[in-house]
Amino acid sequence: MDIYLPIAGMSVNALLMVALGGLVGLLSGMFGVGGGFLTTPLLIFYGIPPTVAVASATTQITGASVSGAHAHWQRGGVDFKMSAVLIAGGAVGSLVGAGLFRLLQSSGQIDLVIGFLYVLLLGGIGGLMLKDALVALGWVKLEERTERPRHNRWVASLPLRWRFYASGLYISPLAPLALGFLAGVMTVLLGIGGGFILVPAMIYLFGMAARVVVGTSLVMILAVSAVTTMVHATTTQAVDIVLAGLLLIGGVIGAQYGAALATRLKPDLLRLALAAIILMVALRMLLGLTWRPDEIFTIEYL
């Protein structure tokens, strides 16, 4: 059954879009990561314009984050003070990102920039995940290192320290503000939730307690994704609500099956599989940019 996407200006198979959302939801449920960084590339491969893919994927992330944030809140796994600081930085970052997005869109280079950033992002993340999975499985041996400090020296040296009791931290709010700002910019430009950036940063840079990291990240992602959706709707006009709805339906269903399947498989093998998927997507985007790109620039009709 074909359905017309008004913003994308094309017809797509509705069941296929639901299935695509279900696939990303399945991966999200299995691997414990948001699917935004896979949704956008897969939509682009299908033929959806990158600008529409980015904005619509952000809408899907907003809906998908609600249940996760609520579940962690009920278990007391959210540091709301830290979330508020991250959200403040993310809100400003989303506005700056929207300005960059619109500037690149008017110059006709937004498609190229999105593809290039995804190659760098997915290549780096996939490489790190592959290394960690191989080490965890015992297939690669690393020399033992001295114990690292609880949080980064740069973070510890910042002024104006605050106490974040739920996280067990006494650090400057400038660090989470900067992290939120970066996540906000990337959410607008790439249509990602940013959880795979926020979670490692909060653990390795801030030294946050593990029990509140995921919940705090989800609250921030929920708020910033909602703001980003509004920014896209009012500035870039690239949100296709029909496409976002189809993806969200599939994502909610797929996530349930993915979560159940994850309990039956070895976590390290799951991480290895996800790393391989991410690297394959990055390679496909790199080939699209360097071997024979579909479009070198985009013409926008006003």
Automatic annotation (TrEMBL):
Membrane-spanning segments:
12-37, 43-63, 84-104, 116-142, 188-206, 213-235, 241-262, 269-287
- State any GO CC term: plasma membrane
Q: Does the keyword Transmembrane apply?
A: yes
Q: How does it sit in the membrane?
A: Multi-pass membrane protein
Q: What is its main location?
A: membrane
Any keyword Lyase?
Answer: no
> Which compartment or compartments is the protein found in?
Cell membrane; Membrane
The protein's UniProt keywords, in alphabetical order, are: Cell membrane, Membrane, Transmembrane, Transmembrane helix
The entry's family comment says:
Belongs to the 4-toluene sulfonate uptake permease (TSUP) (TC 2.A.102) family.
Instruction: Give the protein name, as stated in the record.
Output: Probable membrane transporter protein
Instruction: Record the organism.
Output: Sphingomonas cremea
